Every structure is written in structure tokens, then in C-alpha cells.
Amino acid sequence: MAYFLKELGHRFSSSCKITRLHQHKNFRCCPFPQLQTKVARGSQLCHNVMANTNQFFPKSYNNQSLNGSAVPTLPSYADTSSHICAETLINDMLVINDFISETEEKLLLEEVEPYMARLRYEYTHWDDAILGYRETERSTWNAANTKIINRLKDTAFDNVSSPTNYVHVLDLEENGEIKPHKDSIRYCGNTIAGISLLSDSVMRLVAIDNKELFIDVLLKQRSLYIMRQSARYDYTHEILHNDKSYFKEKHVKKGRRISVICRNSPVVGDERHKDS
Ligand code: OGA
Ligand code: MN
Fold first, then answer.
1. Chain centre to alpha carbon of residue 157
2. Mind listing the pLDDT tens digit for each residue in 193-205?
């Protein structure tokens, strides 16, 4: 019972709902003209990209291969309507497949499912951003899961942008979907990182100032995605309904999916978060 009350407390003091607030101001233009200049400089782009990614993704991104041509090679987890999105992809949207093992996935599920099972899936979301979901926030985990959460945090966040203690756990039922939205710039900082449990799914990022530019990202079961900076600010993100869940023209069956998501807080003085 104490556990239940504690969890209820989390839920009602929860900030996860407000993190999804739609934002209609403070949009920065996508830096496409800059990208075009870089593309014109040919392989220089790749050098810039490598320098950036080494800085932000030292542990994993080094393994991504770039072929030295003007158009960067897209990571296999990404498909885009235009290579103009490539810079965002390579710098700001990373997926690490098999970030957790099957055993670790079970451990996480064993801890979150008993609480989730008490909630009903909701179809009337307060801001209409999400359908067929139940969710909670959790700040304490058993020892084994604390290790996993710490690994997630160490991988996705640097010292400057440390994540909040509260981990958002979102359970989307088979017929559920997350509609296009941008997480609140008032409550959420520059990085959002999530592990997908139970199912593969497709996340679509759409450029806010040009709806024709989109990136589809294959989120495999047990993968970790790290969405930051431009991917987080200049694009909406959504999880496609099973009926529309296609990646490179192949259907990706989305069953029930639970995501375990960490976010950081906005940094005081960050231009992106002014007047929000
Ligand atoms: C959200 C969201 C993505 C996910 O809750 O705002 O976008 O991976 N979730 O579940
Ligand atoms: Mn979101």
C-alpha cells in the first residue's frame, strides 16, 4: 500500500504530462543554408560531423561510418525524405541497438509492470498528443535497474546537461500512438533519451518549418534513442500507429510498447528556453 501511495504521489506530482506541451513560439529556423554550404565543401562536412559527434557521443558514435562523400551515409536506423535532414540525423538523433539485453529488459518490466497493471489505458489525453497510454514517473529503482538507468544517463547526457532524477515510464498499448508534438521547452532541456521495451516501433521527426522534411527512425525493442538539440527543438516527434508503422516501405509491427525515458532540465540562460 505504501508503495502504491508513493507511486500515486509520483503520478500526481508528475511533470511528464507538461513535458509534452505543444510549443508554438521560440522556434529557431532549421540551419539548412549552413548545411548546404557545408555540403558544397564536400568531405569537410564529414570532418565537421565527426568532430561534433565525437564530442557528444564519445562512446558509441565513433562506430558510425561516414564514407567521405558530400552526402553523409545515413545510419541504418534512419530513413529521410531528404538528405537535407542528414545533419540533424547524424548529430542529433542517435539510436543504439541492443542497448540492453533480454535479461535487462525483463528486469525493467518486472519492476514497472505491477504498477502499470493497476492503471487503465487512456484515450482522452489532456492535450491530445497521445492515445492509448498509461504512464508514471519513477525516481527509485531496484539495484539491478539502477545500473541500467545509470548506464542510460551516462551514455546520453554530459556533465553540463545532467538528467533529472525522475524517469518517465510510458506504456503505449498496441493500438496506441503518440501524435506529433515537441516536448515543452519550459520543462525539458536539450536532450531526451529513451529505451524501448516489448516492441519495435517507428518514430517520425518532422521539420517544424517544412512539413515535407521528415526522418523516420527505427526504434527496435531494447534500443536506446538519444534525441537532442536540433532533433529535439526543430522537429516534432511521434510514434506511428501500427497501421502507419512503416520503415523503408516495410511494415514494422508495433505491439504494446513501454518506453523508459530520461530528460534533462532547461539550462538557465539557454537561448532556446527564453520566454517559454
Ligand atoms: C513523450 C514521448 C516517446 C517515447 O512522452 O513525450 O515523445 O519514446 N515519448 O515513448
Ligand atoms: Mn515527446
1. 13
2. 999 999 999 999 9
